Amino acid sequence: MMNRTLMPAIVVAAAVLAAGAFAAEPALTIYNQDFAVVRDSVPLDLKQGVNRVSFNDMTAHVEPDSVMLRDPAGVQALQILEQNYRSDPISQELLLNLYEGKMINFQVTRGEKQEIVRGKIVRSGYVPHQAGLRRYGQQYRQTQYSYSSGGGNQPIIEMEGKLRFGLPGVPIFPALGDDTILKPTMDWLIAADKPGKFDAELCYVTGGMSWEADYNVVAPEQGDVVDVIGWVTMDNQSGRAFENARIKLMAGDVNKIQPEEAGWMWEAGMGSMGGAMPEPPVSERTFDELHLYTLQRPTTLRDRETKQVEFVRAANVTASRFYVYDGMKIDWQRYRSWSMEDLRRQSDYGTQCNPKVWVMREFENAEANGLGLPLPKGRMRFYRRGDAGQLEFIGESMVDHTPRDEKISVYTGNAFDLVGERRRTNFKLNEDRGMLDESFEIKVRNHKKEEAEIRVVEHLYRWHTWEITITSHKFTKTDSQTIEYRVKVAPNAEQTITYTVHYTW
C-alpha cells in the first residue's frame, strides 16, 4: 500500500529519459484496425518521495489515457500523482505563437546582402496540430477549420508602424525555453514509498500503425491446383522507430472506439525444398476470440516504413473455378425509400439486365488441401502462368477473416467469352386478392472452345412468400429469397432457362 505521508512530499527528484536511454527491446502488438499496443522498458531511479520523470521516446499518436507504468516484479509500489502528455513539438509556427505580442529579429535577403530587421508578431498564424482536431468534437474541428481556411493561419507582422501579412524574412528566435519540447513527451509526477532502481514496464495504445495481409495465388497454365503465398505488410506512421522489436499481429474484429503450422509447405519455386523444414517466420495461435501471429525474430520497424514478411506458403492447393450469372440489375439508390407495396406496383422493378458472367475461385482452407491456417482478411491476387512460364495477373478481390476448415470464395473478374441475357416475359398483379405472377427468360451463351457450367442465380425480390409454379430446369433454393440453376453450356452454344414465380401476401 502506498504510504499516505508521501502525498504532501517535500523532496522532489527529477529525471529525463531520452530516446536510446535504455537497451531493452520494445514489443508491439499491431491490430489490423489501425492501432497498436506498445510495451517498453523505462529505467527508473526513484528517491523516496515525489519524483519528476520525463520520457520522450513515445509515439506521436499515443492515447494518453491508455498509458500504464508499473514495476513488473511488483516490488516497488508506484503512485502516479500526475501525468502530462505534450504532443506539439517545437516548430516555427509554434515559436511564433509563443512570441505573439513581442519583437523579434528577421533575417531578410536584399540582393546579395542579408539584413536584420525588427518586427512585432501581431498574429502567429499557428493552428493546433491534427491530433487535437481528431480528439475533440465536430464543432471544435469545424471552428478550427474555419479559423485556418478563413485566413487565421496567416501571420501578421507589425514593422515601422505598419501591418503586413506574411513573414518579412526568416525569423530568428532567442534560445529555447524550458517549456519547449523537441519530441512528443510524457511527464510523470511519481510518488515512491521507498528508493528503488529498476526497469519499469510501460504500456500504451497508439494510432498510426497498421498491418494487412496479402495473398498471391499462382495457377499453372492449365488446371486448378495453385500455390498460395501470403504476406503481412506492416505500416509504421506513428512518429517513432522501433529497433529490434518483438512484433505480434492481432487478427480479428476488436471493438475499438475510434477518434499451429499445419499445412505450411515450403518450396523453392514449384518443387519441394526437401530435407528439414525451416522454422516459419511467423507463428500463429488462438488468443481469446482472436488470432495472434508472432514474428519469430526481432525486426526493426522504422518510422514512415512499410515492411513485409512472408507468413504462409502452400503448394498443391485445389482452387476450383466456376461461373456465376446473376442477371438482375437494380438501382438500389432509386428504390431505397420505397415500401414493399410501392415496389410491387412498380412493374419495371428488377427488369434491367446485367450481361456479365462472374469468374469465381473457391477453395477449402483445410490441412488436407495444403492450408489449414487461420487466414486474416486481406487482398487476394490471382496469377496464371502463360507462355514460357511467365506470370500474368488475372484478377483480385478482398477476403474476410477465414478460420481453418472453412471455404473461401473469391470473385476475380468477368468472363470474356460467356454472356448472359435476362428478360421478363410476363407480369400479372392482382392487388385485390394479394397475388402477383411474374415470368422470366434467362439465356447464357458460351463462346469458348470447351464446355462451361454456369450457376444462374435468381432473386425472388417481390415478397418473401413465393412459389415456383413453372420451371424449365431443376433449381436449388439457396436461401429464403434466392434460387440457383446449374446449367452446362456446350462450346458455341446457348442454354435457355424459363420460370414463373407466384407471390402471395
Plain-language structure description:
- The chain is mainly beta.
- It folds into four domains: 12-88 and 181-206, Immunoglobulin-like (Sandwich), CATH 2.60.40; 92-172, no CATH class; 209-318, no CATH class; 326-359 and 415-504, Immunoglobulin-like (Sandwich), CATH 2.60.40.290.
- The protein is built from five helices and 35 strands.
- A hairpin with a 2-residue loop joins strand 7 and strand 8 (113-123).
Which runs of at least 5 residues are low in confidence (pLDDT < 50)?
1-13, 18-23, 131-137, 260-280
Q: Name the shape in a single word.
A: elongated
Query: What is the average per-residue confidence, as pLDDT, rounded to a whole number?
Result: 82
Based on DSSP secondary structure assignment, what is the total number of beta strands? 35
Number of helices: 5
In spatial order, strands of the major sheet run: 32-35-30-29-26-23-31-34-33
Quickly count the domains: 4
Beta-strand content bin: over 45%
CATH topology of the largest domain: Immunoglobulin-like
CATH architecture of the largest domain: Sandwich
Determine the N-to-C terminus distance: 71 Å
Main sheet, how many strands, which sense, barrel?
9 strands, mixed
CATH top level of the largest domain is Mainly Beta
Structural class: mainly beta
Q: Which radius of gyration do the C-alpha atoms yield?
A: 33 Å
